[in-house]
Structure formats: structure tokens, C-alpha cells
From TrEMBL:
One of its GO terms (molecular function) is DNA-binding transcription factor activity. The keyword Transcription applies. Transmembrane segments: none annotated. InterPro entries: GntR_C, TF_FadR/GntR_C, Tscrpt_reg_HTH_GntR, WH-like_DNA-bd_sf, WH_DNA-bd_sf. Residues 1-69 form the HTH gntR-type domain. This is GntR family transcriptional regulator. The keyword Transcription applies. PROSITE patterns: HTH_GNTR (PS50949). SMART domains: FCD, HTH_GNTR. It comes from Amycolatopsis bartoniae. It comes from the Bacteria. Keywords: DNA-binding, Transcription, Transcription regulation.
Amino acid sequence: MSVTDDAIEAIKQMIVDGELGPGDRLPREADLAERLGLSRNSLREAVRALSLIHVLDVRRGDGTYVTSLDPSVLMDAMGFVVDFHRDDTVLQFLEARRLIEPAVTGLAAQRMSEVDIDGLGVLLGSLGEEPSVEELVANDLEFHRRIAAGAGNPVLASLVESISGRTQRARTWRGITEEGVLARTLSEHRAIQQALAARQPDVAAAVATVHIAGVEQWIRQTLVERA
């Protein structure tokens, strides 16, 4: 377990125990880090991660607060963080995605219309220079959905969409916690779009494999570290 995970777990426990509730302000950073036996850097990373999934609200010049979400919603978000590290079911979906989606991407390189391929470029460009994790994941889901639809096989498109949706929260968490993942994801998406535009099925499938395997590898390593 990483030190950031330790910090997240400690804050979660304070919410579970009722020590912190919706609207409550966290103790001062220095005091909380000392009390939990954590470095201030790891505590900051935990606060950043939890603010991105709307568990904490960082108010500049004021402090950090538990959001006003009701307790059941708060615990659902926190429960995901914990369950994600304990449940390897997501790996099974990513393995299936790695086996199926590159082949579908290769078909799309042969069958997808020029207009739809150009539309992928517009979609990627709509993110801007510094998208949020939520914006990137939503864009990611739409990007892969369009490619699957472009393969011209509704059965495969439905299968890809179903499998991809089951990995959404894991991909969000990766975006929150892994440094540089936003830029890397965009770069890989652009490479896939370029291979589609060039009508290179083998290249498109290979890039898609690398792209999906990167998520799988990160999650596998995360689960190993947690264990």
C-alpha cells in the first residue's frame, strides 16, 4: 500500500467513525499529518485525490472540508476507493477488453467513414490543453464507443460498450493517482485516430492493444502493491 493510500484510508476511517461528517472542516494540515503519522506531501496527494472524486472540498484561504454530500453518497465514493484495491474483477473486464477491442479497432480502420474518423479528431480537440479527469474519462468512453460503432458490427459494438463501461471508475482513479496519465492517454488516442485515418488496421489494432494494456498493467500493479 502506498503512503497516499494510507492517507486516504485514514481519512476514510475518520468519516466512517463519524469523526468527520458532511460540511466538517479537516484539521490543519500539519496537525492532521502529525496525528496520522504521515508526511504532509502524502496527505496533500490524498486530499487532492479525494477532492477530484468530490469527497473533499478544498477552499483556498479557508481550509479543506468534507463535501455537503449526504453520508450514503460519501461512503459510496469512499467505498469505491477501498473496493477497487481489493477486488480484481476489473482485471477480468480489462483482459476481455484487451482481447476484443484491438480487433474491433482494426475493423474500424477498414470500415469507418472518413467523416466519422475526422469526427474523432474533433472530439479529441474538444478537450483543450488541461482537461479534468472527469472530462478525459467521458471523452475516452465516447472515443472508444465511436470506434466500436464504426467497425460496422452492432454485436461487437454493444459488447465493447458493455465491457468498457465496467472499467470506467478504475480509469477515473488511474487518472487521479497516476502522474502523466492524462497526456499519455491523449497521445495514444491521437495515435489510434491517425492509424484509422491512414487505413492501417494492423497499426490501429497494435496501438489499441498498447493503450488498453497500459491501464491493465497499472491496475494489476496497484492490486499487487495493495496486497
